[in-house]
Amino acid sequence: MNRIFALVDCNNFYVSCERLFSASIQNKPVIVLSNNDGCVVARSNEVKKLGVKMGQPVFEIKNLIEQHNIVLFSSNYSLYADMSDRVMQLLATFASEVEVYSIDESFLNLSHVSLESLQEYGEEIRATVWQFTGIPVSVGIATTKTLTKIATEIVKKQTGYLGVLSIAQMSEAELDELLEGISVEDVWGIGHRYAAALRTRDIYTAKDLKYTDPHWIRRHLTVVGARTVLELRGISCIPLETKVKPKKGIMSSKTFGRPIDQLQELEEAVANYTARAAEKLRDQDSLVLCINVFIQTNVFQKDAPQYSKSLSKMLPFPTAFTPDLISAALEALHSIYQPGYSFKKAGVYFSKIVSQESIQFDLFGNFTVEGHVKKTKLMCVVDLLNRLLGRDTLFFGAQGISREWKMRQERRSPRYTTQWSELLSTT
DNA sequence: CGGCGTTAG
DNA sequence: TATTCTAACGCCG
Questions:
Q1: Strand B positions closer than 7 A to protein CB
Q2: What is the pTM of this model?
């Protein structure tokens, strides 16, 4: 029996979240900004029509913003994450297997639904999410994950589908007709580089790609590209990943709100990023063995002196204890720091991540079981308090207090759904 | 195995 | 004046 997949994709997700709490921006052009309010990361349809691109720097569209009264928001991740949870919980009631693919997308296994009722089933999913969360979604249904992406693409771009399209029951000829209308760079897994390579071989549409020689694809687009071709042919080879896998790398990095030249401020920033990364690490019950610290000046400032350096440090034994990680990070920072530069960005990256279960004892280092247990318990308490009472209720001295280097976020909406003090009120 | 390139959201 | 962040994976040497 053929498998059936659905892709449920929230429309302009961050913008839709903001619109839930503001009646006045329903049909207005709305943009959500990246960290530091620097780039566009979400656009309402009105803004897409104006030609604003994903990731575009805000300063490039300053005039457009004024001319069209575009409403700007800083990103409000507490709100988006909470709304995402609510949507995903609802989706889980429609299928026994769900893959939460990103903050605004899930794949569902719909193999239990008959071909004739797929369209209707999709419409029920959409109506339910809308009723209980107010978030509009698009649903694409097909026999492979790559084809669900295409169905969703069509739903979003062409009017008349009302949010749901099943192409699972279509004949090969009908399918090919649809694929002919999709540019090859709009196929999932084909980015701008691969698209350019394909165009040199006169491959312009999803249909062209579907009928391309698999050996050529295998050579030039790797095994991933070969899978994409098979998926376009209706052969499912990208399985549903239902289990959340622990991350193999954890990164915490940010551009500063303003350039930094003092070592002490860099230390604060690096300590903070390390603390964040360590939280994520403990969240997935992991320990880390290798920590990498990097700093860089403003790469866009062409005429300013540039400096960029990173350094990895192996830890003596795997740990998730924030103070130990901060010490290691600061040591690395001191090795790479050069005075006389204005730094604009720093980051911390954890690699060689292992499960807490499979801890390897270090015979020669100063690892002791008692010490490990004590540190684990302490971090448990810190995490618990911060979860209950808000981030940074407890933090380490090295993280600093004033944090003047912090990113700019001048237009963040209230955390309506996760902070009692920020509930929507009418007064 | 590390570095690089590519893609995704 | 001004330009996100995070993660995965395949290939190659």
A1: 5-9
A2: 0.91
